[in-house]
TrEMBL record:
This is Claudin domain containing 1a. It holds the Pfam family Claudin_2. InterPro entries: CLDN1, PMP22/EMP/MP20/Claudin. The keyword Methyltransferase does not apply. It is a multi-pass membrane protein. It comes from Scleropages formosus. GO terms for cellular component: membrane. The chain crosses the membrane at residues 7-28, 140-163, 170-193, 213-236. Keywords: Membrane, Transmembrane, Transmembrane helix. Its main location: membrane.
Length: 252
C-alpha cells in the first residue's frame, strides 16, 4: 500500500512534469524566442532594399549576416529551429495605407545548426568564434536532451507502476532534475549567444529587440521540472524509510 501523502506527491509531480514537457515542446517548436521591431519602409528606394533582403532570406545560400540583417529590418523572429520575417502580402512594400503583412518562415536544417560562427558575421576570414559556435550548438542540443530525459523517466515510471514499486521514483526525480538544468542551460546559452551576436552586428537605427514568449515558456518549464523532481525524490525516499521502519518493527 502507498500512503496518501506519497500518492498525492506522485500525482502532483506527474502533472508538473507533463506541464513542463508540454511547455518545453511548444517552445522548441516555435520561433518567438527573440523578436525584432523594425520601422516600415519610408520610400520606394527603401522598399527596394527590403525586397532584396527578402529575396536573399528565402534564397538557398545560408549566411548568418544575410539572415540576421533581414531579421533586423523586417520585424524578424527567431527560435531554435526557425527564423521568420514579416512581409507584405502583395508586391507593394511602400504605400499608404500600410499593406497587410504576413509571416514567412525558413527552418534551420540540421547541417546549418553545426555551421561555425565567425567573429564578424558573414566574414569567413575573420576567424571562427568558438564561444558563439558552441553556444549555438548547445542551445538546440540541450532541449532535446531535456526532452529525452523526461521521456526516459516516463518509461521508467510506467514500469514502476506495473511493478507497484516506488523505488524507481528516486531515479526518475534525478532525471527530472537534470532535465530542468538542461532547460535552464538552454535559456542561458540562447541569451548569451544573442548578446554576442548583437555585439558583433550592431542593430540598425530604429530597430528594437526583445525576448519572445517561446523563451519564457522554456524558462517556466525549468522550475516545473525541478519541483516535479523534488516531489518524486521526497515520495521515494520517505516511502522507503517508512517501509524499512515497518519491516524492522515487524521483525522485532
Amino acid at each position: 500500500m502507498v500512503d496518501n501523502r506519497y500518492a498525492t506527491a506522485l500525482v502532483i509531480g506527474s502533472v508538473l512534469s507533463l506541464l513542463a514537457t508540454v511547455y518545453l515542446s511548444v517552445a522548441v517548436g516555435t520561433q518567438h524566442w527573440y523578436e525584432y521591431r523594425s520601422p516600415a519602409a519610408v520610400s520606394e528606394a527603401n522598399a527596394s532594399e527590403l525586397r532584396a533582403l527578402h529575396d536573399d532570406f528565402l534564397g538557398a545560400d545560408f549566411d548568418e549576416k544575410t539572415y540576421s540583417d533581414t531579421l533586423f529590418r523586417l520585424n524578424g523572429t527567431m527560435g531554435l529551429w526557425w527564423r521568420c520575417i514579416l512581409v507584405p502580402t502583395h508586391s507593394h512594400w511602400y504605400r499608404e495605407p500600410d499593406p497587410k503583412m504576413v509571416t514567412e518562415c525558413v527552418s534551420f536544417t540540421l547541417p546549418q545548426q553545426f555551421i561555425p560562427k565567425y567573429r564578424e558575421p558573414g566574414n569567413h576570414n575573420s576567424g571562427e568564434d568558438l564561444l558563439r559556435t558552441y553556444l549555438w550548438r548547445c542551445q538546440f542540443l540541450l532541449p532535446l536532451v531535456s526532452l529525452g530525459l523526461v521521456v526516459l523517466g516516463g518509461m521508467i515510471g510506467v514500469c514502476a507502476c506495473l511493478c507497484r514499486s516506488l523505488t524507481p521514483m528516486l531515479g526518475i526525480g534525478v532525471l527530472h532534475l537534470l532535465a530542468g538544468l538542461c532547460t535552464l542551460a538552454t535559456v542561458c546559452c540562447y541569451l548569451a549567444g544573442m548578446d554576442l551576436l548583437h555585439r558583433a552586428s550592431v542593430l540598425p537605427d530604429g530597430v528594437d529587440g526583445s525576448l519572445g514568449w517561446s523563451l519564457y515558456l522554456a524558462l517556466i518549464s525549468c522550475p516545473l521540472h525541478m519541483m516535479a523532481a523534488a516531489l518524486l525524490v521526497w515520495a521515494a525516499r520517505s516511502h522507503g524509510q517508512n517501509y524499512y521502519r515497518m519491516t524492522a518493527y515487524r521483525v522485532a
